[in-house]
Amino acid sequence: MRDGSSSLRSRAGRLALSLLFLASQSIWQANAFTFTSIPSPNLNLNGLGKVAFAGDFDSISLYQYEGQNEQSTGTNGAVLSRFPNGVFANISQTDGDIRAMCAFQANGTLQGIVFGGNFTSVNGMNTSGGVALLNPDTGNVTALPGLTGSVNALYCDADRGRVFLGGSFTGGGASNAIVWITGWTNMPFSGFNGPVNSITKAPNGKIVFGGVFNGLGGNSSAPRENNTQVLPIGSANLTAQTSSGRPGFTEPQNIVCKQGESQGSGQTWLLADDTAGFWKADFGFGFQPTKLRLHNTNFEDRGTKTWRYTALPDGGIMNFTYTDPSSGQQKFCDARCPLPQNNVTAQDFGFVNIVGMNSFKIDISEWYGAGGGLNGIELFQDDVFAYAINEFNEPKCGGVTTGATSSPTGPWVVTPSGQSQSQYLTARLTGDTLDPNSTFVVFSPDVPQSGNYSVQMFTPGCQGDGTCGTRGIVNITGSMAKSSSASKPISTTLYQTNLFDKYDTIFEGYIDATDGFRPQITLAPAANQGRDPLTIVAQRAKFILKSASSGNLNGLFEYDPGQQEVTNNLSDSVIDAAGASLSPRDDATVTALSSDSSRLFVGGNFSGDGFNNIFAIDETNSTALPGAGLDNQVLTMYINGSILYVGGNFTKTSNGETLGLNGVAAFSTSDNKWSALGAGVEGVVMYIVPFSLNITANTPEQVIGISGFFDRVNGFGTNQAFSAQNFAVWVPSRQNWLHNLNIGSISLQGALTAFTDIPGADTVFGGSINSQELGASGAASLQPGSPLSLNTLPATISAQQQQQASLRKRAIMGDRSNSTTGVVAATFYHENQMNKTILAGHFAATDTDGQNITNLLIIDNKDNNRVRGLDEGLNANSTFQALGVLSPNKNTNVLFAGGSVTGTINNNRINGIIAYDFGNNRYAGSQPPALQGVNVTVNAIAARPKSQDVYVAGQFESAGSLSCSGLCIWNTELNQWVSPGSNFGGVVTSMTWISDTKLLVAGNLTSGGNQTKIVTYDSSKSTFTDFNGARDLPGSVTALCIANTDGSQIWATGQGSDGSTFLQKYDGSKWTPVTDAFGQGTNVRGIQVLTLSKDHGNSDLIGSDQDLLILGQINVPNFGTASGVLYNGSTIQPFLLSTTSSNTPGSLSQVFVENPQNILKSSNKHLALGFIVLIALAIALALTFLLVVAGILVEWYRKRSKGYVPAPTSYPDRGANMSRVPPEHLFGGTLSANRPPAI
């Protein structure tokens, strides 16, 4: 059932879409991937009339192609293609978002599909740089190693055979921008000092980069004020070898975080006399030191003369540069670095190479006096970090008076680093601890100077600590300046489902470090994630000061790949000059670029002279768009012909001339006008992705997928607003939303975040998608044909609002009524010139007049599919489990509906069952008295053939004042309850008549004082008889069906005492189990034998002309879950797949047909009536022809035997033009003869 309360997510959340359905038509001409079709199930539907399925689902598919499934892609992304039936196919799974993709061509040949994002793995393969290459012929994915970070933008330049990448990454000697050809290739400017968000080719053929940068290259030229951070050596594990053993001089901690020249006991560390040794520090995190400061000792004329620094765990001896205190000259050293004698002042050594490590040691090889020693040690790095584990933060020493800090609150525990760069904090949240206000970490860095920074949040991979199954989402909030006008606060969400380590850029902008202000970042779990338990982690945040190595650069840069050098005069470029004119100066944000044949369109978060958040650049200058731009940020753009689609956080043009844009708008490049898409959405649009659909007939056309942070689409004109769950589709040809067109549809839930066209093949997409063939909630019909297809019923149902997605459950025996959602029971009724469809369960709907309906609806197929509900009187939290219709005469048509049903009708208390009069469309005048007992539930209703008795079964102790446990009879003639007999009780789950007087009853039963699972009830004798062997079934029976026409063979299913599902066949003499058919967690809700139009192989369990349809939530080994499967006696084949709006597998409860009496009769494989008539006519014509021929032959023989000869045909005495038949020949020889004429 659809649930409109699904929570928002940072990557466009749980998105819901309803698209056009044409099951038998393909809209794709070629495909880059090959999909294997599934053979037809060969079901024989002749004579059954309408066939439909009921259950708890919001979308459903026939299993037609290998690869279709019910599984959710979860919170992560995937490379997607489309099956020939239109359903989206998952090609490769990632552990993060796919933000960009393009088809890489070189020398006219497709090299593959490059895709990038913030993922760290593809199909479990490490892709730490967030970029990989897909081979569309084989489906194989190749990592493109060498980058660290994430990719935001790609542009495949087919003319030059290269791929331009932009994002937030380092590697290959570049930062944030690089080129791939056959390996990483640097551009002349080595990237940018801030992230790149978009790349495109301008009309002049040059490459344009857009992002948040104000300089070329990295950060090397940034002006810095003491931008070195002291590493917390004191928090490391300190050891030493061959220490002196003297009290007060042996502990290696003596020399940590120490300033000044004092020495002595507790101040100095000494080696043993005349002995080499080492001092070692092991950290719980990795670091890249830039400077080492050593204080030598002269205690008792001792001291260190030569030493070396070894980086661990790699074991490399580091090279240093230093200033010789005696000569003042710069010198270098490695394995024998010196310290001067009798000089206890600090000596600084700069690392020549910046190398990562998590441990180091100082080896002392020569000494002064009796032995070596040190008076102090400090280690520095340029990177500014704040760690979640506070012991790893910068100590308050080495000239530092503040130091970084962190403050964890909640059940955090330290987790070993494993595959990650450092140890980190982990919180495993359950129940009450899921409250975001009770678990969080506050990071407070020591930022040494104000300026523009990039802030990165690091997340350790879940594969290293085994928490991938419970990882979730965190909210990141923070303040970067004393005034919000100086810098906007941080507010974003991050997925922590990455398999390997990653970092996300969470802030780009100004950080204030004046007057003692300290920025703060808070990490906390996002609310309402539907996970219990939930695991979140906190590791570290990095603060990078940005430089401006080329002046006047502000978010835009034009690059000519044909030039070997980059000009320093940026004003020569119209595009660069346009960026320089934007505000804020040096901090404009460009998020989207798009171009047509003459103009480049720039979107983002900036202002200027009419350039508010969007503007255009032509060959000679930049121009404002009508309305002076838009009133808020632009996040995405897509151009199709002369229409530029724009998405973001805006509501109107900047000057207010065009209203109602609300997150998404269309700009006509030919008319130079803005127009709304309807009235927009209630929220923010993040992605615009086009794809094809058949809107009319079989002609595919492009539609526009809109996704982001919104929960409704605004109404306009005569179209009402509607819930959209963050996704909607605009149909340009109809100038309307697809939802408003009321077209049968496939279903798409998730997010489409990227796409690329492949030459000569279908479009490939990126996103997180769950897709099924048909968007239908609770019920769908099966249409005969080749192939079979599905269609909706003429009613729209949804979950009741109190039902949260995380609370949806499936019905199981013993607690069916309180845990069931969706449609549980359904039936067709066409007696007495009526044609109705009844759906019942636990749901909400709207009738034809717009009134609310709960739990039961009736579709009148003879009254333009008019939808009705029940009158008031029943509690909305009721759940219907069973339906039955009694038609004893042409004037009476009564529907009985039972379940966990309570309320008041005609001032009478209702419990368990109601009666409804079809003829008058109201409750029946006489209602069955309430059932009594604990948790009263009616599970089955069966009207006895050729009688006025309705058998009602379930969980109850009495009916009205009549004691009849589990089974009772309602006599419609007497309007009273009747006991079926004595010595029977228990909970009944299923019933079926096998003759006019024999009823099979199944459940957890007691008959004659004995426990059993199935009994046969004889209504003519009012007696119960144990069904042969039923006592030995492994558990209670939840569903059964007859397997042949006389009811001597049956199928039964249920759950054993160990919780596993069993399925057994009774062949008339013995029970035979089906073994190893189901995986763990299988829940069978219904079974039905169906006949086939083509026989399968022989089986001892089932006839060659039959299959057993099994419905529920079936775990098929080596496949996964399916909502319906077919069993042919040897194998289980998935048949129906369904999902819910919360991206969980659906469940089917029942197949219902218009003519159930023909289900087993149709196995004779009779031809259709039309074919029979044609064949009979052909036979009749053939027999007539033979009779005529025989008559002619007989007459010929008779005349010949009597001497008749042929009459003359010409007369020689007449002219050629007078050769005619004489009158006497015409009339048999004489006019007076009494004979009929010859003609």
UniProtKB/TrEMBL annotation:
<feature type="domain" description="Rax2-like C-terminal">
    <location>
        <begin position="913"/>
        <end position="1162"/>
    </location>
</feature>
<keyword id="KW-1133">Transmembrane helix</keyword>
<dbReference type="Pfam" id="PF20842">
    <property type="entry name" value="Rax2_2"/>
</dbReference>
<dbReference type="Pfam" id="PF12768">
    <property type="entry name" value="Rax2"/>
</dbReference>
<dbReference type="InterPro" id="IPR048266">
    <property type="entry name" value="Rax2-like_second"/>
</dbReference>
<feature type="signal peptide">
    <location>
        <begin position="1"/>
        <end position="32"/>
    </location>
</feature>
<protein>
    <submittedName>
        <fullName>Cortical protein marker for cell polarity-domain-containing protein</fullName>
    </submittedName>
</protein>
<dbReference type="GO" id="GO:1902929">
    <property type="term" value="C:plasma membrane of growing cell tip"/>
</dbReference>
<keyword id="KW-0732">Signal</keyword>
<feature type="transmembrane region" description="Helical">
    <location>
        <begin position="1167"/>
        <end position="1194"/>
    </location>
</feature>
<dbReference type="InterPro" id="IPR024982">
    <property type="entry name" value="Rax2-like_C"/>
</dbReference>
<dbReference type="InterPro" id="IPR011043">
    <property type="entry name" value="Gal_Oxase/kelch_b-propeller"/>
</dbReference>
<dbReference type="Pfam" id="PF20843">
    <property type="entry name" value="Rax2_3"/>
</dbReference>
<dbReference type="InterPro" id="IPR048265">
    <property type="entry name" value="Rax2-like_third"/>
</dbReference>
<keyword id="KW-0472">Membrane</keyword>
<feature type="domain" description="Rax2-like third">
    <location>
        <begin position="385"/>
        <end position="545"/>
    </location>
</feature>
<feature type="domain" description="Rax2-like second">
    <location>
        <begin position="226"/>
        <end position="374"/>
    </location>
</feature>
<keyword id="KW-0812">Transmembrane</keyword>
